Inverse folding.
């Protein structure tokens, strides 16, 4: 049996995809540069006969031909996940998202052995959508962050390569994915802040930012359901059926940490109350396409936040 290649497989979402694939009996090769990923996320598989790990960077083209060899499926999750421009430069997004994806697609083209590629994109490709919930055919797509722009560029590369070189591309536009092993984002930041100062919690923006939060098990089940539909190019949203705002998340984290008396200090944010430049204030995805092939989320946004807060607190 040929392997599945999982790029970024030591990261948050990637490691859960690895869990699912090996759990189903599929041999897996993980490639990760371990900059943001961790081998701790893969500890249960280190000595498993179906698991192989390669420490490498997708920017190193010399290794990619060997990395894709004997892999018939590719799950491309390696990326710079930072939406906040303070934490990632334009060059970071270009190289780690666009250039890395191009290098991988070139290796697949030259190999010719891969049946399909799965790509985790983002809800931020929609920009500030006027249609809420937002459907996959919404347009024009006008991202307001470099992260969203880089992911949209990757989508375009995937669809073109799939059409021209004969493999399937399945693209998933994800809501805010949360759960065990996450090491960035609003829930992680709130837990960290309250551990450092249990009296006051500083919240970026005006607190009204309202978004869908997707629990990791729902994310992975959505990916595995979506790949069963066999068109050359598929684009699916994955999110919860509702959304929650930043103030509600702050209250959930306070309660889970036992710091209900902590005061919340809003920074006011930028550009109408955003947490940072490029922060989409309202996001909720329509999931009609994924539901049409049998998927449903098990967790709403508030429950996903609560379960994630508990997991982060337990580990910290």
């Amino acid at each position: 049996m040929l392997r599945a290649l999982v790029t970024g497989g030591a990261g948050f979402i990637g490691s859960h995809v690895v869990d699912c694939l090996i759990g189903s009996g599929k041999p897996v090769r993980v490639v990760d540069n371990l900059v943001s990923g961790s081998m701790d996320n893969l500890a249960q598989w280190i000595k498993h006969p179906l698991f192989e790990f390669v420490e490498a960077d997708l920017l190193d083209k010399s290794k990619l031909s060997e990395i894709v060899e004997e892999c018939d499926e590719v799950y491309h999750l390696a990326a710079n996940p930072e939406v906040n421009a303070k934490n990632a430069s334009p060059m970071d997004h270009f190289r780690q998202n666009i250039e890395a994806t191009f290098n991988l697609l070139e290796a697949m083209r030259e190999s010719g052995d891969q049946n399909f590629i799965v790509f985790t994109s983002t809800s931020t490709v929609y920009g500030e959508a006027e249609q809420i919930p937002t459907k996959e055919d919404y347009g024009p797509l006008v991202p307001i962050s470099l992260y969203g722009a880089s992911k949209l560029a990757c989508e375009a590369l995937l669809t073109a390569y799939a059409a021209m070189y004969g493999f399937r591309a399945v693209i998933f536009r994800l809501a805010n994915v949360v759960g065990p092993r996450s090491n960035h984002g609003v829930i992680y930041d709130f837990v960290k802040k309250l551990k450092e100062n249990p009296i006051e919690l500083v919240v970026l923006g005006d607190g009204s930012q309202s978004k869908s939060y997707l629990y990791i098990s729902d994310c992975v089940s959505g990916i595995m359901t979506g790949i069963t539909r066999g068109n050359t190019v598929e684009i699916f949203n994955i999110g919860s059926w509702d959304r929650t705002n930043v103030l509600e998340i702050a209250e959930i984290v306070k309660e889970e940490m036992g710091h209900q008396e902590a005061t919340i200090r809003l920074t006011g944010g930028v550009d109408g109350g955003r947490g940072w430049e490029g922060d989409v204030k309202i996001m909720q995805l329509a999931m009609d396409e994924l539901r049409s092939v049998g998927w449903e989320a098990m967790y709403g946004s508030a429950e996903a936040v609560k379960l994630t807060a508990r997991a982060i607190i337990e580990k910290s």
The CA atoms of residues 128 and 294 lie 29 Å apart. DSSP finds nine helices and 14 strands in the chain.
